[in-house]
Design goal:
Helix content: 25-40%
Oligomer: single chain
Number of helices: 3
Structural class: alpha+beta
Radius of gyration: 25 Å
Number of strands: 9
Strand content: 35-45%
Length: 168
C-alpha cells in the first residue's frame, strides 16, 4: 500500500460524513417548508375520529336504515357553485328538519376551505347559496347530516372539469 492511497482514506470519510450531514439538514429544511395538514376525516381531527369511530359507524348504520341522502347538484362549477342535497325518509317522504353542515375543501389542503350553512329548504331539497371556488380542479364536498339524534357523514369527490361525482 502506497502512502498516497493511505492519505485518501481520512479525507473520503470526512467528506462522506459531511455530505450525509448536509443531506440531513436539507431534508429537515424542506420538510419544515411543506405544509402538514390535519386529517379532515369526518370533519374532525383524526384523534377525535379514532376515539369516536364506533359511535360514528353505529350512527351511520342507523341513519341509513331510516333516511336517504343524495347529492343532486347538476355539476360543480368554479364560477357559480350551488350545492344541493335531497334528504328523504325510508318511505321516500321528504325530510325538512335535517341539520346539514357543508365544507367544500381541496384534497389535503385547507387553504381554500369554504363552510356553507343556512340552506334554502324546499320539499326535502337543501340548496346552499352560490359560492365561487378559487381554483379549477378536484374538490371534496363534505356534509354532516343530522336528523333528530342520529347523524351521517356524506363525503363526495367532485371536479369542476367533469360531471362525475364519487362518494368516499
Amino acid at each position: 500500500m502506497s502512502k498516497k492511497s493511505a492519505k485518501i482514506w481520512p479525507y473520503s470519510i470526512v467528506i462522506s460524513i459531511t455530505l450525509v450531514f448536509i443531506a440531513c439538514v436539507a431534508t429537515i429544511v424542506i420538510a419544515n417548508k411543506l405544509p402538514v395538514e390535519k386529517s379532515d376525516t369526518y370533519m374532525m381531527g383524526y384523534h377525535e375520529a379514532d376515539a369516536k369511530a364506533n359511535e360514528i359507524l353505529k350512527s351511520a348504520i342507523e341513519f341509513n336504515k331510516r333516511y336517504k341522502i343524495e347529492y343532486i347538484s347538476d355539476e360543480l362549477s368554479s364560477k357559480n357553485c350551488i350545492v344541493k342535497y335531497r334528504v328523504m325518509d325510508s318511505a321516500s317522504n321528504p325530510v325538512n328538519n335535517a341539520d346539514i353542515k357543508i365544507v367544500i375543501t381541496r384534497p389535503n389542503n385547507h387553504k381554500y376551505d369554504q363552510e356553507l350553512s343556512n340552506p334554502v329548504i324546499e320539499n326535502g331539497i337543501y340548496t346552499f347559496r352560490a359560492t365561487k371556488l378559487p381554483q379549477e380542479g378536484r374538490w371534496d364536498i363534505m356534509a354532516k347530516v343530522k336528523v333528530e339524534d342520529i347523524q351521517r357523514f356524506y363525503n363526495i369527490k367532485a371536479d369542476t372539469r367533469s360531471k362525475e361525482v364519487i362518494e368516499y
